[in-house]
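ARCHIVE CARD
Drawer: 12
Card no.: 0347
Subject: one protein chain, sequence and derived structure
Cross-reference: see card 0346
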Amino acid sequence: MSDYKIETPINVLVTAMGGGGHGEQILKALLQDKTGLVRVFGGDANPNCPQFKLVEKSFVLPLANDPSYMQGVFDICAKNGVKALFDGCEAELQLFSRERERIKENGIFLPGNPQNVIDICMDKVKTAEFLSSVGFEPPNFLKISSKNNLNKVDFFPAVIK
């Protein structure tokens, strides 16, 4: 056991924490902390987000595609001493990844993968190709670009998107 002791809680912000996305799951995980070392703040675009009642302080945020979104997040973090930022939805994942350097420059820790990993994981074909390239055998896959190519699916089960 280390004798390193944190004197004050670490303030973290979880965005898009309402309704079924991964933000809600991150919030649930952080709320399991019983040490008192984490103080959880939450943001969501829904002003009636039910999860607002679960956090230390809540903030209504615009959608991630709003031009004022990142500055709003930076302002919240600066005013509340937030030291770690968790994205809660895919749009924020993409935005925070692109803004990784600015987030770091603002003294905020951003857990998560680098942009190149996110780009691969967000595309099922790229994921399967990557897995193949590093020696794993992914499930059968086929990129279908039109319904005329559906006859190329000769394996089952098959998930078609």
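Annotation on reverse: The mean pLDDT is 89. The longest strand covers residues 38-44.
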